[in-house]
Amino acid sequence: MADKDIAPPYAGGCLCGAVRYAVSAPSLNTRICHCRLCQKATGSPFYARAVFPKAAVAITGRTERFASSERIWRHFCPACGTQLFGEATFAPDRWAVALATLDDPSAIRPEMHIWTSSKVDWLRFDDGLPQYPEGV
């Protein structure tokens, strides 16, 4: 992993290639979320994502969305099911991008772990990042 973030632009897409995106701005924040909603939505122990100004994210291809809560819409590729984006109802000018969907998933370093109160017991951290039992 790089010592610091690679400068934008960033590009990425879904597993099947039907959805592609480009991001023209640096991230506003980058977090690893361990909440149960993120675990269930991703089928993974955590969800690493970077938040960008919505205007900086250009998407090609069709996505569908699912309301995983009253606060979050999760956008995914309808062909392969890859979860690509998160849209918070409380921050409509921002767009979260799943770090693992970047063409270079190491381009942006996470800043912290959130919702560690829901972390799976067998997961251990040795990355030195701050950890918060709930959201920040």
What would your notes on this structure say?
The protein has one helix at 36-42; strands at residues 10-13, 20-23, 29-33, 47-53, 57-60, 64-67, 72-76, 83-88, 94-98, 112-114. The chain is mainly beta. A hairpin with a 4-residue loop joins strand 6 and strand 7. The longest helix has 7 residues, at 36-42. The mean pLDDT is 94.
**Name of the CATH first level:** Alpha Beta
Count all strands and give the number.
10
Q: Residue share in helices?
A: under 10%
Under CATH, the topology can be stated as glutathione-dependent formaldehyde- activating enzyme (gfa)
Compute the separation of the termini in Å. 24 Å
User: Radius of gyration, Cα only, in angstroms?
Assistant: 14 Å
Q: Strand order, main sheet: write it out.
A: 6-7-8-9-4-3-10
Topology:
Layout: E1 10-13, E2 20-23, E3 29-33, H1 36-42, E4 47-53, E5 57-60, E6 64-67, E7 72-76, E8 83-88, E9 94-98, E10 112-114
Parallel strand pairs: 3-10
Antiparallel strand pairs: 1-2, 2-5, 3-4, 4-9, 6-7, 7-8, 8-9
Offer a concise description of the structure.
The protein has one helix spanning 36-42; strands spanning 10-13, 20-23, 29-33, 47-53, 57-60, 64-67, 72-76, 83-88, 94-98, 112-114. It is mainly beta. The radius of gyration is 14 Å and the shape is globular.
